Amino acid sequence: MTAATTSAPVTTRPGAPKPKTRTSVAGPLSQHHFVLRRLHSLSGIVPVGLFVIGHLFTNAQMIWQDNGETFQHEVEFIHSIPALLFIEIALWSAIAFHAGLGLYYTFSGKGNVAAYSYGDNIRYSLQRWTGVIALVFIFFHIATLRWRWDILGLWDTPFYYKGYSVPGMEEQFPALANVPLSAPLTAYALQYSVWVALLYLVGVVAVVFHWSNGLWTAAISWGLTISTGAMKKWGYVCIGLFVALMVFFGAAFVGSLRYDFDAMTPQQKAATLFTVGDGQWAFDDKERLETDLASIGMEAVLLPPEDADETGAAGDERPIVEPSETPGVADDAADHGGDAAH
Amino acid sequence: MIAPATPKTFKVRIKRQDGRDQPAYWQEFEVERRPSQNIIAVLQQIAANPVTTAGEQVEPVVWDSGCLEEVCGSCTMVINGHVRQSCSALVPDLLEDADDNTITVEPMTKFPVVRDLFVDRQRMFDNLVKVKAWVPIDGTHDLGEGPKESPEKQQERYAISRCMTCGCCLEACPQFTLDNDFLGAQAIAQAYYFNEHETGKKLKGERLEALAGPGGVADCGNAQNCVKVCPKEIPLTEAIAKAGRQLTVHAVKKFFTGK
Description:
By secondary structure, chain A is mainly alpha-helical. In chain A, 58% of the residues lie in helices and 0% in strands. Chain A has 13 helices and no strands.
């Protein structure tokens, strides 16, 4: 019997207690440990990462102060992609897989930045923190803007107006059909509260860091960068990607915060107000808003009466027809003209 | 003008533990300064007169050591919060960085404490067994000349051969804990070392299977503390990356050929 074929027993020192069984990071999935870890790496880079690049680049179009035309064009392009639902499902599966395993792996280690405050070690801990922050942020982002959940009554803004417009609006007011709303509604979401803007800032920095740093570590894990020099060079590429994506985000962020609601067309103004409810605060030029709405005969429908504050009836004047109402009900309301503004 | 005199003594705080799974506690000792003093010498001074600064007569501190020239790895401890060998940790250097004329000495935290500063580093040797870190010849018969080794490969492997199984890389690793099963830089680097040995290659497949399993290379979180604390300056992160490359190639081959 040679040493090669001996599976040598694990030795213990005389008097030493039995070695305790160690919890494996792989746990019940240990048979497929290696494949799962590589898929975890891949699922972060390819579907999620590539989508985020496209997403941030599209959003960057908000920087052109062209009343959101470029941005709208990009959004419509994305919505024109065939089988978008499959892409969405693929993305969700990738995020769920990546996040599920990621959380599992995160708690297998124990950060020690205090004792060993090297840059690489700080990034090891940051990678885990930003992963958790990114997960919370992405959920909040999708839940509010895509699924239109009103989480804790914080913020109720639709993401894309086609398919998410207030039920019945187009039937009541054919003039408001197909009004481009992607830019104003995105801008509205960010201008809504400084906390929302802050959430986006922190959330996107976390996502972008997590992705670019993940790209750096993945190159080592897959055995692409096998020398210290190569790791360093690839690190510069990852920093470049981080900066580029942050520039895209910066453009979207600044563009959204500086978006000029006053410059919109009367139809856009009416449709925005219809969709978001009490949205008058977004308009600096109230006179122009009134004139614009009057020019398409919608002032009475969308603006609360002057004495709304005194009667405390402002809430009731919200022009929103609750999304839970069926289109049929809205149609009935349309028959009664002005009564639609419940 | 008289330059401020260097204090004749300094304090040492030692984290002690009476036995396995016993609670840890701190004790402080005052030690006389001597020329070229290292931490082992300090521990010997304490052993000669084990009285704490509180005036309590205590058991001498237990520690592990061997060569006293930084090649055996057995006297590795956490000194002033940093893992290193106590034989090469010199008092003047340590006091230079200490703010209150005090040096702290603790046992490593990633291995079970046997007593005081003496830890059980068995896990590292078990891991070497797991990854079959040896050349498979048993010496029972003459195998003739071995295969040729290129000088470049020799150079590369020599750097990794300097490993003394001290455990610094594992102590500093955030991914290596007392409870999980991560192999860590030491065993991964040694697996790569023997994979690159012309005769050691015979076991490459078996080693890669071990490295692909739970606790293997894929668990590395690339914090890269290992390479920074390694007293032998072994390019551990490069060895881990190269083992990762071997695994990628191995997995692709296995996927398409089934073996």
